[in-house]
Amino acid sequence: MKLKKYITICGVTSALLSLTSCNDFLSTLPDNRAEVKGPEDVRSLLITAYPEKLYSMYCEYSSDNVVHNVEADANTKPFYDQIYAWEDITETDNDDPRGTWESCYGAIQTANAALEIIEKAGNPANLQAQKGEALLCRAFNHFVLVNVFAEAYDPATAASKLGVPYNTRPETTLKPIYTRESIAGNYEHIAKDIEEGLPLISDNSYSVPKYHFNKKAAEAFAARFYLYYQKWDLAKKYASQVLGSNVKGLLRDYDALLALPSGSDGFKNRALKFIDPSNANNLLLIASYSGLGRIYGFYTIGARYTHSDFVAAKETVEATNAWGSTELKLKGEHVQEPYRKILFPRYPEQFEITDRIAGTGYLRTTQVEFTTDETLLIKAEAEIMLGEKEAALADMNAYLSNAYSGQVELTEQKIKTWNKETKYSTPQLPTPRKQLNPSWTITPEQEEYLQVLLHLRRIETIHTGLRWFDVKRYGIEITRVDVSDGSKVTVTSNVLKKDDKRRALQLPADVITAGLAPNRK
Predict the structure, then answer these.
(1) Are residues 217 and 331 in the same domain?
(2) For the chain, how many structural domains are there in total?
(3) Range 110-131 average pLDDT
(4) Beta bridge partners of 174
(5) Is residue 515 assigned to a domain?
(6) Is-cis flag, bond preceding 170, omega within 30?
(7) Is 240 in contact with 361 (CB distance < 8 Å)?
């Protein structure tokens, strides 16, 4: 099994298809960039401007989407234990935060190298689409990093809170000096790169545009970014550009998924169909070195901490909700006791064979990073914050009519009734309705709508790690519990408070040793 595979932040190979291990990204000379000969190489260069180590696994394990399944205690490893407990990570893994750090900065280095080539070529018209893609890639990689390794954006504190280094030029020195920019500075730079790059994006640049920042993917990224930035009008603007005036035919085609068999064998084929670039709802696909295909597959791997039948029944897909139906078209698959996984086919296992005789290679998967489905819910959330509750209700109903079987309709009265009858979640009696502590002001009516919207987001983004960012944005507190026999709850003393510094994952140890300020001491 693959243990580590990193792009170095400090070097770019001629084809940029091979990856280099790097123990210290602050001390490698970028001398390989000389092998990139000219503007004609920019298109192939940008293939590796996307991270090959994403955030999904450890962000999902940090969230309230998983609990400790006591019967499956043997199905873990120290890395999982540390992530679930919000500890500083000392273990290494295929899906660890250090991999994201190095992979994202390696991708940023590639984007900056491409931008430098374009600049030195005189910024020609035939490379404007590649310039746009490079800017979007640089923005996206920094967006991932600041949301993983810093606190959620809060306009009142962002100027004084540590973000991440924002790199805008290729490295040319042996030991460059890096400093952590503020969160506010990070967001300002990301916004600048998005606004400059998005108009340049062309869907005609690649034969399979969904593995690159095509126009709709770039707009979906802008919508998510501005939602996190609390720029509700811009979040709605870009989401609307993705979706147009009629979302019918743009959302996930569940009939195509359901036409494939269920069960363990069918699950793999459904996962492959889920990531199919021909799906209208899939906007950006990112290939990754990852074990997610096994963690969220019919295996015992990762069963100690999992989206179990307990979480499903109390908080997510099978919990009592405001719209009155739990009949998802694509139902979760149950892995037998004692493992108790409730899974959705999102991550196919794509094994890259390196030695056919020995049967060895690398675990891979593909992440659907942006979809029209999530973008529709971004639009609804922005509308709630803009006071446009009728528009938000219409968008939530458009989502429900596509994802659920039968006649499902959400009304204002249903929202009010569910909020009145559903108590706030507690460790002993969990519900989907969490105490919200956002950094911005919300009215009681907005909270009612947001409770429903966040429940829908939680279901739509299950397994992806995006729930963790919602937990951070809304200051949702989490108490870790041990669940035995499927329903017996033992409450632990490990509580993630709304202002808990552990919401920002600690920087990799070697990065701190190299001189960057840690999140906490």
Answers:
(1) yes
(2) 2
(3) 95
(4) none
(5) no
(6) no
(7) no
